[in-house]
């Protein structure tokens, strides 16, 4: 899409051969007629599953329909010299055990941890002696309290207690992420042995309850109440409440006033990187470098990864058991098991023969909530944004706030709710919630000298527009212009710095990355679609109604860029293969 007539976005894929391709030499680089396991889709979860299976001695092949691996965790050079994390753009939730087990640092993964990590500038009149206020948060609690005290001394005193409260909840939830959910189907219909095995899956739940102890009712409220209600109990200043609330609604078609929005906040603060709880980082080389490192680990162990190989159908034999896949070119590949990193909708409504799926199961899958509010805009600029609340230093060198998630139109939770209400009526938000990130502030390899890549994660934009309108180029550019006008109010001169932009509305995210409804999680992270019920009740243990078919993507427990679904599914598959 053009930006002020200053250039057109065009696809450019001329990067050096990635490490995983170099590792995949000889026989592993040639397609064989049969493998032990086939993985559909080279998203990060699919690659994690392949890496674990191959390390366990299961000969595994991965088939990716695009020319590049990574799914939504991908780096694309969409204008010469500018490398964008085109969809997913930050890392925090990747399970530490996966980094260790797969030796991802050895395979090239390098992280740039952000500290400070959050910057919320205010839209208010400055004076000769005072700039507009802003809220800058990082790992230094004393500095955080000083920042918060600009708005409320009471909130500054409460903030450390709030952080400790949330850390305890994260500590309780954390073990639930690394194992399959409780097998409710085994309790109902399983043999005695299966029921005994199912009992072991209760341990993480019991451990979580013990960790929370007498405060369980308060923590239950965090998970089930609107995040606005939870934050109102802790704080009084709107800039702080709205900044924290962004983590409860980001990527979700929910308002801070929506019941259950607290879990989404928890989902975005439960990460841990290099021993730092709650840390978020940029990946050196963009998010695609994470996928490349996982793929390199898998390929080094012998896994085969193929791009531009679209799976058209899952093969099921006459006994109702998976026997492989058929590719779009008609080639058949046999396997003992198939793992799908695709969404539940694509896996079960498009790839799996419907005659082998129970009607009730198909109905539940077709009714999954996949609403997404997100339009991602990737921007190439020729200078750093210069915020009125924090003017740039001489020489235009990045400062601390430039490395943060920069929250715009986020001074008040009412602003977030109004933006949500616009989208519920089929209209793009008049004042969109904007999370602006500048990964090149810490990773200069992403842009030419003096230039930067800017990621705009914006909401709320409905998948279907009101009044019969569609997301054509005119509507997309009208919305992007509105976003840029908002940024201009905080950082005058931003629009003049824009060289080009790439606008991805919910239908674009669905078309390019096969994210259903444009949803970055493959489905809403609402309480009715979590844990026991992800993707649907009685099928949360990665197994599917067709024997030998497994779900290992973000539509399975626990969702997000964690790699946990891939790792957990691989262990379930390995146990099943041993029993075949």
Automatic annotation (TrEMBL):
Gene3D superfamilies, per database record: FAD/NAD(P)-binding domain (3.50.50.60)
Keyword annotations: FAD, Flavoprotein
Entry annotated with the keyword Heme: no
Keyword Flavoprotein attributed: yes
Predominant cellular place of this UniProt entry's protein: mitochondrion
Protein family per UniProt: Belongs to the carotenoid/retinoid oxidoreductase family.
Pfam families documented for this protein: Amino_oxidase
Subcellular location field: Mitochondrion matrix
Subunit structure: Interacts with COX5B; this interaction may contribute to localize PYROXD2 to the inner face of the inner mitochondrial membrane.
GO cellular component: mitochondrial matrix
Domain Amine oxidase, chain residue ranges per copy: 46-387
Function: Probable oxidoreductase that may play a role as regulator of mitochondrial function.
MF annotations from Gene Ontology: oxidoreductase activity
Protein name: Pyridine nucleotide-disulfide oxidoreductase domain-containing protein 2
Lineage: Eukaryota, Metazoa, Chordata, Craniata, Vertebrata
């Amino acid at each position: 899409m053009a930006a002020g007539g200053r250039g057109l976005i065009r696809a450019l894929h001329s990067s050096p051969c990635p490490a995983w391709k170099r590792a995949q030499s000889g026989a592993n680089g040639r397609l064989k007629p049969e493998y032990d396991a086939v993985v559909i889709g080279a998203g990060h979860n699919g690659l994690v599953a392949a890496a674990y299976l191959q390390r366990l001695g299961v000969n595994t092949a991965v088939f990716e329909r695009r020319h590049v691996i990574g799914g939504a965790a991908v780096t694309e050079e969409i204008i010469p010299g500018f490398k964008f994390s085109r969809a997913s753009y930050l890392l925090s939730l990747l399970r530490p055990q996966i980094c260790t087990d797969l030796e991802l640092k050895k395979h090239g993964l390098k992280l740039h941890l952000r500290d400070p990590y959050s910057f919320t500038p205010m839209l208010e009149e400055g004076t000769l002696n005072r700039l507009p206020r802003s809220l800058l948060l990082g790992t230094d609690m004393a500095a955080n309290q000083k920042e918060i005290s600009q708005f409320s001394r009471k909130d500054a005193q409460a903030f450390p207690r709030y952080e400790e409260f949330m850390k305890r909840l994260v500590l309780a939830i954390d073990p639930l992420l690394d194992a399959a959910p409780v097998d409710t189907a085994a309790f109902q219909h399983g043999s005695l042995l299966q029921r005994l095995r199912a009992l072991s899956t209760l341990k993480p739940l019991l451990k979580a309850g013990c960790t929370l102890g007498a405060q369980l009712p308060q923590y239950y409220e965090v998970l089930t109440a609107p995040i606005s209600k939870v934050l109102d109990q802790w704080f009084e200043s709107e800039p702080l409440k709205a900044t924290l609330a962004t983590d409860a609604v980001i990527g979700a078609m929910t308002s801070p006033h929506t019941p259950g929005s607290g879990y989404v906040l928890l989902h975005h603060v439960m990460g841990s990187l290099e021993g730092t709880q709650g840390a978020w980082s940029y990946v050196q080389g963009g998010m695609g470098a994470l996928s490349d490192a996982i793929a390199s680990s898998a390929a080094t162990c012998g896994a085969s990864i193929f791009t531009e190989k679209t799976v058209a159908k899952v093969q099921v034999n006459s006994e109702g058991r998976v026997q492989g896949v058929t590719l779009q070119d008609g080639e058949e590949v046999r396997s003992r098991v198939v793992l799908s990193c695709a969404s539940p909708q694509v896996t079960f409504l498009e790839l799996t023969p419907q005659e082998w799926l129970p009607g009730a199961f198909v109905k539940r899958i077709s009714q999954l909530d996949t609403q997404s509010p997100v339009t991602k805009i990737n921007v190439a600029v020729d200078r750093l944004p210069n915020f009125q609340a924090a003017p740039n230093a001489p020489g235009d060198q990045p400062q601390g706030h430039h490395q943060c998630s920069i929250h715009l139109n986020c001074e008040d939770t009412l602003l977030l709710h109004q933006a949500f209400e616009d989208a519920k009526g089929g209209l793009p938000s008049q004042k969109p919630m904007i999370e602006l990130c500048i990964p090149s502030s810490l990773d200069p390899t992403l842009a030419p000298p003096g230039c930067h890549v800017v990621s705009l994660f914006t909401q709320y934009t409905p998948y279907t527009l009101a009044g019969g309108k569609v997301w054509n180029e005119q509507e997309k550019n009208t919305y992007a212009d509105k976003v840029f006008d908002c940024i201009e109010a905080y950082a005058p001169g931003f629009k003049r710095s824009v060289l080009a932009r790439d606008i991805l509305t919910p239908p674009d995210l669905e078309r390019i990355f096969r994210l259903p409804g444009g949803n970055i999680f493959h489905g809403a992270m609402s309480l009715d679609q979590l844990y026991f019920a992800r993707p649907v009740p009685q099928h949360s243990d990665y197994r599917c109604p067709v024997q030998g078919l497994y779900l290992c993507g973000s539509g399975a427990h626990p969702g997000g860029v964690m790699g946990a679904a891939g790792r957990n599914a691989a262990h379930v598959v390995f146990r099943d293969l041993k029993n075949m």
